[in-house]
Amino acid sequence: MPCDVVSIGSTPTALAATHLDGVTEVRAGVYVMLDLVMHNVGVNQPSEIALSVLTTVIGHQRKKGWAIVDAGWMAMSRDRGTQRQKQDFGYGLVCAEDGEVVGDYVMSGANQEHGIISRNGTPDYDIEARFPIGTRLRLLPNHACATGAQHPVYHAIAADGSVESWPRFYGW
Questions:
Q1: Is residue 16 part of a domain?
Q2: Do the beta carbons of residue 82 and residue 141 sit within 8 Å?
Q3: What is the CA radius of gyration of the chain?
């Protein structure tokens, strides 16, 4: 039976395919950005994730060992795709502003506009010294598609530090 459209999907398939003879469409998901879900299935390293959310430490919960940031689930999405995987990253993995992963810190909790940064769910009573108020952090997302959809524009940072703003396409 003839089939004019043959569509396949998934980032791992797009990365592993040696040929796509007969395929007319590849829907590769997070192929361009990558994310923590793909990291957990062995597709990429955190340093290869192209999408992050820049946030600022705005407070602390000293008794709980938490830092509070100005990015909640409205910035990261509610996607907890790593929750049932080999490593749970909460709502995202914490990096320094330059993109380097900062130990085992994650955004372990979130409300609409604020996030909780903790050491993989355990208290860090030195967190105020580690992340003083005003510290800028980057959060790597569980699911790049869901996080990216939360923002109207992407700020693309080139290797030389220059920045371009790319508006996001809306609609289906």
A1: no
A2: no
A3: 18
Residues near 42 by beta carbon (within 8 Å), at least 6 away in sequence: none
Q: How far, in Å, CA of 106 to CA of 119, rounded?
A: 6
Rounded to whole angstroms, how far apart are CA atoms 20 and 24?
A: 8
Number of domains in the chain: 1
Structure tokens at 26: 């590849």
> pTM for the full model?
0.89
Give the pLDDT score at 113.
Answer: 96
- Residue 78 in domain: yes
**What is the residue range of 64's domain?**
46-167
Q: Residue 111 above 70 pLDDT?
A: yes
Query: In which residue are the tokens 């790593």 written?
Result: 82
Q: Is residue 10 part of a domain?
A: no
* 90 strand-pairing partners: 107
